[in-house]
Backbone:
């Protein structure tokens, strides 16, 4: 019996020690869980603060974008007014070609026709006495494949457009035989065009160069002619 009791005592002691250690572990785990919960609470609070800060930042960015949009709209409006006033002044002073049209020809050719302008001349005059023909042309631009002839009018209309195509283009060919191997590309220019005149230019296969809503000089019927 003494051996049995001794063994029971050993088992009881081991069980008691196990219970003590288990309780200690549970208490330690509870303390760690409490600390973890506190840390998680702090983390959640920090995340909430971060989200609030991000919301404030997004709101500030939205306000900034709105302000930039208003600024760009105002700048665009000012540029349109300036272009309009400048164009009208150039029209009155007779410097439309030099001030408005000629500087826009090169960029328009490179943008739409994908060609480098090798030579560009404004107010080009030529007189062949032997043939008794002469002419003055607002802008002549030359590339590897084409010669672009620009005729500019202060008050464009149907009659002037048709005269450009039917009279000016053939006279240019007569006066400049050196360009006979190059394609002749006609461009009719003004500050503004009515849509009916643009449509006529498209039917006559003449490119129409003018201000697009007073933002910049542009070929208004390029896509329409390309489709045709």
Residues:
């Amino acid at each position: 019996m003494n051996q049995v009791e001794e063994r029971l005592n050993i088992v009881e002691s081991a069980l008691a020690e196990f219970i003590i250690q288990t309780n200690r572990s549970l208490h330690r785990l509870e303390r760690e869980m409490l600390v973890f919960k506190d840390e998680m609470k702090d983390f959640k609070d920090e995340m909430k603060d971060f989200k609030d800060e991000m919301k404030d930042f997004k709101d500030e960015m939205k306000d900034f974008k709105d302000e930039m949009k208003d600024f760009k709209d105002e700048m665009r409006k000012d540029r349109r007014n300036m272009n309009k006033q400048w164009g009208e002044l150039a029209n009155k002073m007779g410097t439309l070609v030099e001030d408005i049209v000629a500087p826009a020809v090169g960029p328009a050719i490179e943008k739409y026709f994908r060609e480098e302008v090798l030579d560009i001349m404004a107010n080009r005059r030529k007189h062949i006495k032997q043939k008794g023909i002469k002419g003055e042309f607002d802008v002549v631009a030359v590339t590897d494949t084409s010669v672009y002839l620009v005729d500019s009018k202060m008050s464009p209309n149907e009659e002037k457009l048709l005269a450009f195509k039917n009279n000016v283009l053939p006279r240019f060919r007569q006066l400049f035989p050196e360009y006979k191997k190059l394609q002749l590309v006609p461009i009719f220019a003004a500050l503004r065009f009515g849509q009916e005149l643009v449509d006529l230019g498209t039917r006559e296969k003449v490119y129409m160069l003018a201000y697009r809503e007073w933002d910049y000089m542009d070929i208004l019927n390029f896509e329409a002619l390309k489709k045709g």
User: Anything to note?
Assistant: The CA atoms of residues 80 and 213 lie 7 Å apart. Helices lie at 2-93, 96-112, 158-175, 195-203, 222-227. Residues 2-93 form the longest helix (92 residues).
